[in-house]
Every structure is written in structure tokens, then in C-alpha cells.
């Protein structure tokens, strides 16, 4: 008598539910399981149980709890990056499904760099929903180079980037300005320094960095270009959340947007390091679209909500 080999369990039985992944990302962003639970409208015991169930399912510890709050383990930071991609795909699926229900003319495909997607775009999309509640929005988040490719190839109607340059074939307008900060955990020696960090010392120090192609990395590379660029990274990570998690754990200094670390700095989980005024760590945030035609329809409606979007480049 022969037995057929059992196939793999259905995907739904092997992949954690979306709610658990959303909770993990909220813990990474807020640094507190309690605050994450309140944001998602669940009790703290329920949130703790959901995290424990996720850890049991994956077989690794994801969150380290302490009297000062909760932070992701190294494994948790990696899982959070995968979870972010799954949630982005789920949001795109939901937006696409809604568009199929008779609202194709009100569909807006947005691509945004990580800083804009996490810290600015949600408010803009809420305002757009208030003005145009029938608009179905799909969002693709990635680094600035990836966003430019999506807009150039027609896979996004409009994009938001934070890099220094705009590729040929794209129109652009400045929508905001941003500053990069050197940050570190409170226990790092740089957290106690009073003398500004000079470019040479920053360039010689291995840092926790975003990947090449991100707007954050482009600005840092340009600021240190005269010194041969930054030293080989201590860690090179593909999301702002992962960089912050590594920095707050004490792994080393990081360079991130002031927008991205405002909450961690206010809570004392990260400390900004003073830098020399000669270091050019400011940047313009831009919206981009395919030339020669300016944005129309929902894309135009979204830009109309941004007071600085009239400064064309």
C-alpha cells in the first residue's frame, strides 16, 4: 500500500495574519507595545498575545520588552521589513479591488520614497479622501530610484522622491524641505559629545545606512563626496524602520530624516549628534510625473492640496 506525499499546507496556514504584521510595524514605529495597541484599537493584553503568537509561529523572538518600552530584535527588524512589503501588497490589492467595482476613472496610483510614504503621505491622502471620497488610491513605497522607475514606466501616475536629481523624462516640483540627522542610542559615546562632528570623522566611521539608491543615501554620499564618500556601512538596510531599530538597539550611529526620527528623539530613544555647519545634510522633497503633460485627474487633485507644489524644477 502506497501513500502519496502530503503537499505543503495552504499559504493562509503558513503566513501570519495581516493584523499581527500591522501590530509589529506599529511597535517598531512607536517603540511601545501599549501605544501600538492603542493606535490599532486593541487592548494591551490582546496585543501582547498577538505578538507572542507571531513569535511562536515563526520560532524567533521579535520584540524585546523593557521598562523603557519595546523594541524589535534583529530578527524582528528583518521580519518587519518583510511584513511591510506584505501590507503594501495588501493595500494595493484592496485599492485595486475597489477600483474594479466601477471606479476606474477615480483610481490614483502613487509611488513614494520611504520617508514621504511613512511620515507625510498618510495625511495628504486623508485630505484627498475628504475632498474626493470616491478616489481609490494604491501606493507603492520604495527608494527614490525605484519610485522614479515606476513613474517613468507608467506603473504610477505620480511619485514623491527625496533624492538630489530627477531623471530625464520626468517633470518635478518641490513640495517640502527636509534635514538629515546623525542619531545614536543614548548610551553611545557620540550622544554625550558637545563638539560638532566634522565631515572627516563622519566619513571615517562605519554607520547604519539606507541602501544605495535611497534619497537619504544620495544626500549623505554627496555631502561626503570630497572625502571619498562614507566608510563601508556597519549595516545597510532597505527601510527606515529597520535602520531606526538597529540604531535604538545600540548597534551604532545612523543617518536619517528629521521627520523619521522626531518621535524617537522626543522620547529619548535616539539622541541627535551635533554636526558641523559645513555638512550639507538638507534636501528637497519633490513630486514627479511623466513629461510632457502635467498631472491630471486625482493626481492633480492631490497636488492641489500641497501648498508648496507650485515650485517646478
TrEMBL record:
Q: Which Pfam families match?
A: HTH_1, LysR_substrate
- In what residue span(s) does the HTH lysR-type domain sit? 16-73
**Top-level taxon in the UniProt lineage:** Bacteria
> Which keywords does this chain's UniProt record carry?
DNA-binding, Transcription, Transcription regulation
Q: Where are the transmembrane segments?
A: none
**Which family does this protein fall into?**
Belongs to the LysR transcriptional regulatory family.
Q: What is the name of the protein in this document?
A: LysR family transcriptional regulator
Task: Look up and give the organism this protein is from.
Answer: Actinacidiphila polyblastidii
The lineage is: Bacteria, Bacillati, Actinomycetota, Actinomycetes, Kitasatosporales
Amino acid at each position: 500500500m502506497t501513500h502519496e506525499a502530503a503537499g505543503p499546507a495552504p499559504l493562509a496556514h503558513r503566513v501570519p495574519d495581516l493584523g499581527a504584521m500591522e501590530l509589529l510595524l506599529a511597535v517598531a514605529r512607536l517603540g511601545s507595545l501599549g501605544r501600538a495597541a492603542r493606535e490599532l484599537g486593541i487592548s494591551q493584553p490582546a496585543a501582547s498575545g498577538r505578538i507572542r503568537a507571531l513569535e511562536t509561529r515563526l520560532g524567533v523572538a521579535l520584540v524585546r520588552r523593557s521598562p523603557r518600552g519595546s523594541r524589535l530584535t534583529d530578527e524582528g527588524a528583518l521580519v518587519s521589513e518583510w511584513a511591510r512589503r506584505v501590507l503594501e501588497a495588501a493595500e494595493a490589492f484592496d485599492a485595486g479591488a475597489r477600483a474594479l467595482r466601477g471606479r476606474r476613472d477615480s483610481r490614483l496610483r502613487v509611488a513614494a520614497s520611504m520617508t514621504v510614504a511613512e511620515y507625510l503621505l498618510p495625511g495628504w491622502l486623508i485630505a484627498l479622501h475628504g475632498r474626493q471620497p470616491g478616489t481609490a488610491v494604491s501606493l507603492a513605497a520604495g527608494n527614490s530610484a525605484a519610485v522614479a522607475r515606476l513613474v517613468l514606466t507608467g506603473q504610477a501616475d505620480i511619485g514623491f522622491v527625496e533624492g538630489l536629481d530627477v531623471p530625464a523624462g520626468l517633470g518635478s516640483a518641490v513640495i517640502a524641505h527636509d534635514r538629515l540627522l546623525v542619531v545614536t542610542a543614548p548610551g553611545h559615546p557620540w550622544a554625550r559629545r558637545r563638539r560638532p562632528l566634522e565631515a572627516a570623522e563622519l566619513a571615517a566611521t562605519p554607520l547604519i545606512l539606507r541602501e544605495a539608491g535611497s534619497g537619504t543615501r544620495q544626500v549623505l554620499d554627496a555631502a561626503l563626496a570630497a572625502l571619498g564618500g562614507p566608510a563601508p556601512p556597519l549595516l545597510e538596510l532597505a527601510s527606515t524602520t529597520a535602520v531606526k531599530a538597529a540604531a535604538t538597539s545600540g548597534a551604532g550611529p545612523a543617518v536619517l530624516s528629521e521627520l523619521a526620527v522626531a518621535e524617537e528623539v522626543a522620547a529619548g530613544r535616539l539622541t541627535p549628534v551635533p554636526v558641523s555647519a559645513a555638512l550639507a545634510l538638507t534636501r528637497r522633497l519633490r513630486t514627479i510625473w511623466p513629461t510632457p503633460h502635467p498631472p491630471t485627474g486625482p493626481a492633480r487633485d492631490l497636488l492641489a492640496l500641497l501648498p508648496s507644489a507650485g515650485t517646478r524644477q
